[in-house]
Specification:
The structure is a homodimer. In chain A, 52% of the residues lie in helices and 9% in strands. Chain A is an alpha+beta fold. The first copy, chain A, has two domains: 142 residues, Beta Barrel (Butyryl-CoA Dehydrogenase, subunit A, domain 2), CATH 2.40.110.10; 328 residues, Butyryl-CoA Dehydrogenase, subunit A, domain 3. In chain A, strands 1, 2, 3, 5, 6 and 9 form a six-stranded mixed β-sheet that branches. The first copy, chain A, has a three-stranded antiparallel β-sheet with strand order 4-8-7, with no helix packed on it. Chain A has a two-stranded antiparallel ribbon with strand order 10-11. In chain A, strand 5 and strand 6 form a beta hairpin. The longest helix of chain A has 36 residues. Chains A and B meet through helix 4, helix 9, helix 10, helix 12 and helix 16 of A and helix 4, helix 9, helix 10, helix 12 and helix 16 of B. The structure holds flavin-adenine dinucleotide (FAD) (2 copies). One flavin-adenine dinucleotide (FAD) sits at the interface of chains A and B.
Chain lengths: 663, 663
C-alpha cells in the first residue's frame, strides 16, 4: 500500500488546488491538454527517464535520438495538434535537435523568408524531410552579431552565393542540432556583392547529404564537446561548422526584407525591417514561460522535501521540526515560490503582447516596437537570472541530499543556466533596456508620450515627489501603495541616471562609464513590470475557493521581498522611510505564515508528474528515504563489493608494497 | 613559437608580480614550496588531467585510485614534508579518499583520542596501513548531530560496544572515502550504557577486512551514487553504511574527554570538553583557505578570458573592445578578484587565530572560545557562499564559452558548492553567530567585555550615534571611515535586533520568528571582520614595488562593493547618507579604472599552472580560440562523422519511414 507522507500537508491547504491548476496552466483547455500529455509520456516505457548521468556521451546522444524519433512517431500516430506536440516534447524533458528545428529554424524561415521561400521550405521542414538548425554565433562573435565574419559573396557569373569561413574565429560555434544531425541551417553571414558590404543576413544552406548524411563538399562540421553537468544539455549536439567556398543558389538568401537581384544589387522589399521583431518577441515569451517552468520545478522539489525533512527542535522525543517551519527556510523558499507564480503571470501577459504586436505589425503600426523590444529583453533577462539563481538556492535548501544527482536539482541547474546567455547575454540585454529608458526620460518634456510598460513615467512629476503612505504593516498589502513605491523607485533612479549622463560631454562615453548604474535602473524597471502585471492579473475575477487569496499573498511576497533585497534603491531615492521598510519586513514575515500551510498545495498546483520532476526528494508521496537508499545501490560503483582498481592501487598502499607497484 | 597573447596586458602592470606572488602564498618559503610542487605535478605524465567528463563512473573512480596511490608513492620516494605532501595533493586536484583520511580521520583521533589511543592508531594511519573516514552524518540527520540515531551500547559481559543502526534513517550517509575504500572509520553514535543515554560520541570502527577488503560481518556498505556535475566530486566514494549489531572493544571509543569504565560507568576525564573546538577551528581555517583557492582560480580564468575576448566597439575596422574594458564586466569581476585576495588575508589571519587558540587551550584558558567559535563559523559561511556564487558569476562572465566543460568553470562549480553545506550548513552556522551576537549585546551593560572580533561593540554608545564624515569620493579610501561605517552598521543592526527580540515573551520564540533578520546581522558582522582583517594587513609593511598600493585598491573595492550591495543596511540604520552612498559609488568606479591595467597581473600572482587551472579560457598565453577548436574534435561524438543511431533513428524520419521503424 502506498502511503502519502504529505497527506497532512495537503489537508491543510486553504484553497481549491484543482482550480489553481487551471490558473497555472492558463486555461481549462491548456490544463487538460497538459495533464493528458504528461500522463501519456509518463506512462510510456519508451519515454522512461534514463539515469542520464550514468551514460557516456555517445550512449546518451544515441538515446536522445531514439526518444526524439519515438516522440515524432507518436505525434504522427496520435495526430497531435501543434499545441499537444509541443507539450509532448516538453514532458519528454530532454534537449534535442528537434528543439532548434521547431523553435528556431522554422520560425526563422517564417519570419525572414519570402512567400515563395516559405512555400518551398516549410512543407519540407514540417514533415521533417529536412532537419534545420539556427547558426548565428561564431567562435569569435556572439553578442555582437554585426561582427560576424562568415561571408556570403554573390557571384553574378553563376547566380550563386559563395559561403566562406575566412578565419578560425569565423567558425560557426554553438548552434544546437548542428553538430551531428541537421541537414540544413539558417546561416548568418556578411553579404558581399559587387565588392560592397551589406551587413549580416540569413541564408538557407544545406549541410549534409540527404542520402548518406555526410557533410557536403567544402563543409567541415562536428560537435563542440561536453558542456556543464552530466546528462543535462549534453544530449544536444551543439556544433562547429566551417565553410570552404560553399556555393548556394541565390534564392536561398532569406529575402523577405532585403533582396539581391540577378545583377547583384541589394534592394529593400516593401516589407518593413521591423517585421523580424515579431519573431524575437515570440522567442522571448517562450523563454519567460520556460523560466517559470524551470523555477516551479525546483521550487516543487524543495518545498516537498522541506516538508519531509525534519531537523532539531524535538520536544521530549517527539517529532523534530519540519525544516519548512524555520523562518530562514521560508525566507529563502517562499519568495522563489512567489517568483514562479509571478513569472507565470508575466509569461501569460507576453502571449497577449505577442498577439498585439503581431496585429500591429500587420497594420504597419510600429509605434509600440521600441517599447516592446525593451520590455521583452528586460523580462528575458530578469526571469532567467532569477530562475538560474533560484534553482541553485532550492538545491541548497535541500541540504546535503540536494547535492545528489538523484535530487534532480543539479541537472536542472546545469541544463537551465545557459538561458542567461543565449538569445542575448542578460547584461547586454539590460543595457539595451537602459538605453531605451534614458531615451524615454529625455523625451518626457518633449510631448512624446511614454507608452506601454513605461507609461508610468508620464507621471514623472508626481512620482518624483510622492511620499509613501504606509503607516502600519498591513498598508503594504495595498496594491496602490506597492505600485507607487515601485514606480517612484524606477522613475527616480532613471531620472538620476539621466542627470548623471548629461554631465558627460560625450553621451556614449557617459553611457559606458555609468553602465553599472544603468543596469540597476533597468532591473528596477523590469521588476516593476512583473509586480504590475501580477497586480493587474489580480484585478480580474479568479474563480475557485481561496485561489485569489493565495495569489494575492504570493504577489505581496514577491513585491516585498524585492523591496527588502533592493532596499538601498528605495531608501536612497527617498521613496520610503526606514520605518516603512521595517514595517514591510514585518508584513513579509506574517505573509510567510499565511503561505506556510498552503505551500505543498501551491506546488501541487503545478501538476508535475514524478516522471517529469525526476527527483527523489520531490516525490509526490514524500517517500524520500527508502527511495534514496534503494537508488544508491544502483550506482555502477556498487556492481562489485571490492571496487575495480583496489588490487592495483589500494592494496599496495595498505600492505606497504607501493615501492614495487606499477602505477 | 609560442606567442603570449596577453603580453601587452602583462606589460601594463604597475606592480611587482613576483613580490605579489609571495604575498599571495603567505611567505617566501610557502611560495617556493608551492611553486616547486606545482611544477612537479604539472610535468609528471602520471598526473596528467584526464578529460574527466568523458569517463564513466567506474573508470573515473579507478583512475582516482591510481592517482592517489601514485601521489602517495611520490610523497614517500621524495620524502616530502607534510606541507609539501599537502601541496601535492592540492595540485593533483582530484577529490579522493585521502582527503578524508588526512583531513578528518587523523585529526579526529588526534583531537578526541587519548594518548594511548593516539599511540596505537596514529602510526597505522600515518603509514596508511589503515585508511580512515569520518562518519557522522546519517540519512536522516546532518545538521542536528544530537539527533543521530546510530547506537553504541556497552555490553559489560564482553567489555564491548555494540554498534547498531536501528532504523533506515540511521544509515550513515555521505562520509567521503567510506563507499569503497576506507578500512576504518570514526563513527559517531549515541552512547548507551546501563540503560542510560549519554549523548553522541566517536568510535573507531573497522569496516572492511585488511585481507580481502570485504565488509566485516554485520556491515553493509556502498557508494551513495552520482553527485552534481561530471567529473567533479564523483571521484569521491561518499558512502552509505549500516551496522547490524557490530561489536568493537571498549577501548575503541574515543575517550579523551569522556570515558566508559569497565563497569560501564561514564566518567569525564580531566581534559576539558572544550578541547575538541581546536579541531573545529583547524577545519574551518582550511575551508576559508580553500575558498580563496577556488575563487581565485575562477577569477583567474574569467580575467584572462575577459582580456582575450573582444566584442563590439570596433572603430573603423580596428580591433573590438576587450570585454574587460566594459564597466559592467568590471563591476562583476573586480569585486570577485578583491574577494579572492580578501579571503586569502582572512585565511592567513585564521592561521594565527588557530595557533592562538591552541596555546590558550593548552593553558586552560577558554575565555576566547565562544568568540572564536562564532567568528570561524561565520567566516566559513561567508566565504564559501561568496565563493560558490562567485564561481558561477565567473562562468557567466565568459559568455557562451564558459558553459563548455573545457572552460574549467562548470566542474569547479560542481566540485566546490558542497562547501556551503558540509562542516555546517551555512544558514545554520549564521544562526549560531547571531545567537552569540545577541548574547554579546545583552551583556554590554553588564561589565563583561566584548572580545576579539566583537571588541568594537564595546564602543556601542559611540557607534550608535556617530555620523559618517565623508564629504567627497576620496574620503571613502580612508580605512578609518570605512571601518566606522561597517562597525556602526553591524552594531546598529545587532542592537535593533536585540530590541525586537526583547519584545517577545519567550526569547526562543523570538529568535525563531526573527531568524531571517538575525542572519543578516550575522552577515554584517562577518563582512566587518573581513574588511577589518584586510585593513589590518595593510597597516603592516609590505615589500615590493606597488604591491601595497594594489592591495589597498582591492581592499577598497571589497568594502565599497559590499557597501553598495547592502546599501539598505547602511541607509536604514542611518550610518551613511544617500549622498555619501553615491560618492562611494563614484569612488568604486574610479577604483575599477585603477585595477583594470593590473587585472591580468593580479591573477598571474596566484601562480597557477595551466595544468592546475585546466581551462582553455584561462590559459596563461591567452591562446584560446585555436585550442577550443582543437579540443572540440576530441569529443567521442566526433569519433565518427555519421553518429551512432543515425540509421535507426534519424534516417527514418528524413525518409518518412518512421511508421515501420522499431524504436
Ligand atoms: C547552450 C547554448 C546553446 C546555444 N545555442 C545557439 C544556437 O542554437 N545558435 C546560435 O547561433 N547560437 C547559440 N548559442 C550561442 C549564444 O547565443 C551566445 O553564446 C550568446 O549570444 C552570448 O554571446 P557570447 O558567447 O559571444 O558572449 P560574449 O558577448 O562574449 O560575453 C562575454 C562577456 O562579455 C560581456 N559583454 C559582451 N558585450 C558587452 C557589451 N557591449 N557591454 C558590456 N558587456 C558586454 C557579457 O556580458 C559577458 O559577460 C548557444 C549558446 C549556449 C551556451
Ligand atoms: C559532498 C559532501 C561531502 C560530505 N562529506 C561528509 C563526511 O565525510 N562525513 C560526514 O559525516 N558527513 C559528510 N557530509 C554531510 C554534511 O556534513 C551534511 O550534509 C551537512 O551537515 C548538512 O546537513 P543536512 O544534509 O542534514 O542538511 P539539513 O539540516 O537537512 O538542511 C536542510 C535545510 O534545512 C535548514 N535547516 C536545518 N536546520 C535548521 C535550523 N535549525 N534552523 C534553520 N534552518 C535549518 C538548512 O539551512 C537547509 O536549508 C557531506 C556532504 C556533502 C554534500
Amino acid at each position: 500500500m502506498e502511503v502519502d507522507h504529505l497527506a497532512d500537508e495537503r489537508s491543510k491547504a486553504q484553497f481549491d488546488v484543482e482550480e489553481m491548476k487551471i490558473v497555472w496552466a492558463g486555461s481549462r483547455h491548456a490544463f487538460q491538454v497538459s495533464d493528458r500529455i504528461a500522463r501519456l509520456v509518463a506512462s510510456d516505457p519508451a519515454f522512461q527517464k534514463d539515469h542520464r548521468a550514468r551514460l557516456g556521451r555517445k550512449e546518451l546522444f544515441k538515446n536522445t535520438l531514439r526518444k526524439a524519433a519515438y516522440a515524432w512517431k507518436r505525434i504522427n500516430e496520435l495526430r497531435l495538434t501543434e499545441e499537444e506536440a509541443s507539450r509532448l516534447r516538453f514532458f519528454v524533458d530532454e534537449p534535442a535537435f528537434t528543439d532548434l528545428h521547431w523553435g528556431m529554424f522554422v520560425p526563422a524561415i517564417k519570419g525572414q523568408g519570402t512567400e515563395e521561400q516559405q512555400q518551398k521550405w516549410l512543407p519540407l521542414a514540417h514533415k521533417m524531410q529536412i532537419i534545420g538548425c539556427y547558426a548565428q554565433t561564431e567562435l569569435g562573435h556572439g553578442s555582437n552579431v554585426q561582427g560576424l565574419e562568415t561571408t556570403a559573396t554573390f557571384d553574378p557569373q553563376t547566380d550563386e552565393f559563395i559561403i566562406h569561413s575566412p578565419t578560425l574565429t569565423s567558425s560557426k560555434w554553438w548552434p544546437g542540432g548542428l553538430g551531428k544531425v541537421a541537414t540544413h541551417g539558417v546561416i548568418y553571414a556578411r553579404l558581399l556583392t559587387n565588392g560592397q558590404e551589406h551587413g549580416v543576413h540569413g541564408f538557407i544552406v544545406q549541410i549534409r547529404s540527404l542520402d548518406d548524411h555526410l557533410p557536403l563538399p567544402g563543409i567541415t562540421v562536428g560537435d563542440i564537446g561536453i558542456k556543464f553537468g552530466s546528462g543535462a544539455y549534453n544530449t544536444m549536439d551543439n556544433g562547429v561548422l566551417r565553410f570552404d567556398q560553399v556555393r548556394i543558389p541565390r534564392n536561398q538568401m532569406l529575402m523577405r526584407v532585403s533582396q539581391v537581384t540577378r545583377e547583384g544589387k541589394v534592394v529593400q522589399s516593401d516589407v518593413p525591417r521591423q517585421l523580424v521583431y515579431g519573431t524575437m518577441v515570440f522567442v522571448r515569451k517562450t523563454i519567460v514561460g520556460d523560466a517559470s517552468n524551470a523555477l516551479s520545478r525546483a521550487v516543487c522539489i524543495a518545498t516537498r522535501y522541506s516538508a519531509v525533512r525534519r531537523q532539531f527542535g524535538s520536544q521530549k522525543g517527539g517529532l523534530e521540526t519540519q525544516v519548512i517551519d524555520y523562518k530562514t527556510q521560508q525566507n529563502r523558499l517562499f519568495p522563489l515560490l512567489a517568483s514562479a507564480y509571478a513569472f507565470r503571470v508575466v509569461g501569460e501577459w507576453m502571449e497577449w503582447l505577442y498577439t498585439d504586436v503581431t496585429q500591429r505589425l500587420k497594420a504597419n503600426d510600429f509605434s509600440t516596437l521600441p517599447e516592446v523590444h525593451a520590455c521583452t529583453a528586460g523580462l528575458k533577462s530578469l526571469t532567467t537570472s532569477a530562475t538560474a539563481d533560484g534553482i541553485e538556492e532550492c538545491r541548497k535548501l535541500c541540504g546535503g541530499h540536494g547535492y545528489l544527482h538523484s535530487s534532480g536539482l543539479p541537472e536542472l541547474f546545469a541544463v537551465y543556466v545557459p538561458a542567461c546567455t543565449y538569445e542575448g547575454d542578460n547584461i547586454v540585454l539590460l543595457l539595451q533596456v537602459a538605453r531605451f529608458l534614458m531615451k524615454t526620460v529625455s523625451q518626457l518634456g518633449s510631448g512624446k508620450k511614454a507608452v506601454g510598460t513605461t507609461a508610468y513615467m508620464g507621471r514623472v512629476e508626481q512620482l518624483m515627489q510622492c511620499r509613501c503612505d504606509v503607516q502600519n504593516a498591513e498598508d503594504w498589502l495595498k496594491p496602490s501603495i506597492v505600485m507607487e513605491a515601485f514606480e517612484a523607485r524606477a522613475t527616480r533612479m532613471s531620472v538620476a541616471c539621466a542627470r548623471n549622463l548629461s554631465k558627460f560631454g560625450n553621451q556614449e562615453e557617459g553611457f559606458l562609464e555609468l553602465s553599472a548604474d544603468l543596469v540597476e535602473v533597468a532591473v528596477a524597471h523590469c521588476q516593476l513590470i512583473v509586480v504590475s502585471k501580477f497586480i493587474e492579473k489580480l484585478q480580474q475575477d479568479i474563480p475557485g475557493k481561496g485561489v485569489k487569496n493565495q495569489l494575492e499573498n504570493l504577489c505581496s511576497v514577491y513585491a516585498l521581498n524585492i523591496l527588502h533585497k533592493h532596499l538601498g534603491d528605495f531608501l536612497s531615492t527617498g521613496c520610503i522611510t526606514p520605518m516603512q521598510a521595517s514595517l514591510a519586513n514585518d508584513q513579509l514575515r506574517s505573509l510567510y505564515s499565511q503561505v506556510r500551510p498552503n505551500a505543498v498545495a501551491l506546488v501541487d498546483a503545478f501538476n508535475y508528474t514524478d516522471h517529469f520532476l525526476s527527483s527523489i526528494l520531490g516525490r509526490y508521496d514524500g517517500n524520500v528515504y527508502p527511495k534514496l537508499y534503494e537508488d544508491a545501490w544502483k550506482d555502477p560503483l556498487n556492481d562489485s563489493i571490492v571496487p575495480d582498481g583496489f588490487h592495483e592501487y589500494v592494496q599496495p598502499i595498505l600492505k606497504q608494497q607501493l615501492r614495487n607497484a606499477k602505477l
